[in-house]
Amino acid sequence: MTNRVRAARGIARRWLRGYVLAAFATLLVGVVIGYALGTQVPAGWLQQGTGSSAFVPDRITFWTLLSNNLLAITFISLGAASAGALTAFALLLNGVLIGAVVQIALRETDLLTVVALIAPHGIVEIPALLIVSAIGYRFGHRTIRYVRGLEEVLFTRRDLKEAGVLYAVAALMIVVAAWIEAEVTLAVAERVADGAAVEA
Asked: What is the DSSP letter of 52?
């Protein structure tokens, strides 16, 4: 086993094994809440194509998607400075938005089209969100243990290095996801919707 393989396994064991599962559970709770609320979620949160906001610009391009998503993963990673609270809040909010959008979209189109609107970029973007969430949760967990006197140091140089590696990996995934969302997702969804219309 090479040193790189050992290092990768060590990072996965320390950062991803438990914390990614916790992040996924938090996101899933948000999705369920958002789906249950549907149109009760403030319209400004779901703003699409009309007007603009800091998070939903007038024109959806690779660059706007990339900048917004990089901002999102950076905010999520700030759980490191808030004992995990900001990470949990950001995950819940993202989950609520996903759930609400899915519920509303299902009133207008079929399930397959909704999946086509999410899956192409989502299979890359969501794991990236979970990776940076692991950073926020692990540092948050260590902060709580340090305050309780269960850790001698708040974090080590290795922690910072590994967190940087994970953030870089997540950022690269976000670049890929933004390109897919800007160039592929809509085309796939349109083909799926056209196919469903023909069958109908």
From this structure: -
> Cα 145 from chain centroid?
26
H/E stretch holding 103: helix 85-108
**pTM exceeds cut of 0.85:** no
**pLDDT score for 3:** 74
- Structure-token pair, residue 3: 């040193």
Q: Between 12 and 149, where is the model more confident?
A: 149
127-142: burial string, b at 16+ Cβ within 10 Å, e else: ebbbbbbbbbbbbbbb
Q: Which residues of 39-51 are buried (b: 16+ CB within 10 A; e: fewer)?
A: eebeeeeeeeeee
d(CA 75, CA 5): 30
